[in-house]
Design brief:
Elements (H helix, E strand, L loop, with lengths): L4 H16 L7 H23 L5 H25 L4 H25 L8 H11 L1 H8 L1 H25 L18
Helix pairs in contact: 1-2, 1-3, 2-3, 4-7, 5-7, 6-7
Length: 181
C-alpha cells in the first residue's frame, strides 16, 4: 500500500478535478475539493521521494493530473469572471509557451514531459491559493501575481527543454541543468 499511495493521491487529483466541473465555483464544496486536490499535489511527490517509491509512471501521472487540474480550473474560472482582455491574452501566451516547451521536448527527447521545477511548484502553490488571493486582493492583482509566476516558470521550462542535454523531469531550476552532451 505504501508503494501505491502516492499514485492513489495523484489519481484522486484527477477525479477531484473532474468533480470540480459539477460544483458551483468558490462555494464551500468546490473549495473543499479544490483544496484537497492541492494537498494531493503536494503530498504525492513528497511521499514518493520520502519513501523512495518514485517512478517514471508516477511522474508522468503527476504531470497529467496537473495538466487536467489546470485545464479544469481555466474551464471553470474563465467564464465565471468578466476578465479583462489583457489577462486572457496573457493566459493564452502562457499556454502557448507551455505547448511550445512540450513540442521542443518531443522533438529533442522523443517524449512529452512537464518538468517539476521549483518555479512550477511555486506556480502550483499560488494557483492553489487563487480563491483566497482573489478574495484578499481582487481579480487584477491576483492575475498579475499568478501571471508573473506562471510566465517565469513557463519560460524557464522552455529554456531548460531547449538547452538541456538530457530530459530530467525533476530538474530543480535552470541553474541545475546538464548542458553537456
Amino acid at each position: 500500500m505504501k508503494k501505491r499511495l502516492p499514485n492513489i493521491l495523484t489519481l484522486f487529483r484527477i477525479f477531484g478535478a473532474a468533480a470540480l466541473l459539477f460544483l458551483a465555483p468558490l462555494k464551500p464544496p468546490f473549495l473543499a475539493v479544490y483544496f484537497l486536490c492541492g494537498v494531493s499535489d503536494i503530498l504525492d511527490g513528497f511521499l514518493a521521494r520520502r519513501w523512495n517509491v518514485s517512478s517514471h509512471a508516477g511522474a508522468l501521472l503527476d504531470s497529467v493530473a496537473d495538466f487536467i487540474l489546470v485545464s479544469v480550473l481555466l474551464y471553470v474560472f474563465i467564464p465565471y469572471y468578466n476578465w479583462p482582455s489583457w489577462i486572457l491574452i496573457w493566459i493564452a501566451a502562457i499556454a502557448l509557451i507551455r505547448i511550445t516547451a512540450l513540442i521542443v521536448c518531443r522533438i529533442r527527447f522523443r517524449k512529452f514531459a512537464f518538468l517539476h521545477t521549483v518555479s512550477n511548484k511555486a506556480t502550483g502553490a499560488a494557483l492553489l491559493c487563487f480563491p483566497f488571493l482573489l478574495w484578499l486582493f481582487g481579480l487584477n492583482p491576483t492575475a498579475i501575481l499568478l501571471g508573473c509566476l506562471a510566465s517565469l516558470s513557463a519560460l524557464e521550462e522552455l529554456t531548460i527543454q531547449i538547452v538541456s542535454a538530457h530530459l530530467n523531469r525533476d530538474t530543480i531550476s535552470i541553474l541545475h541543468i546538464n548542458k553537456s552532451l
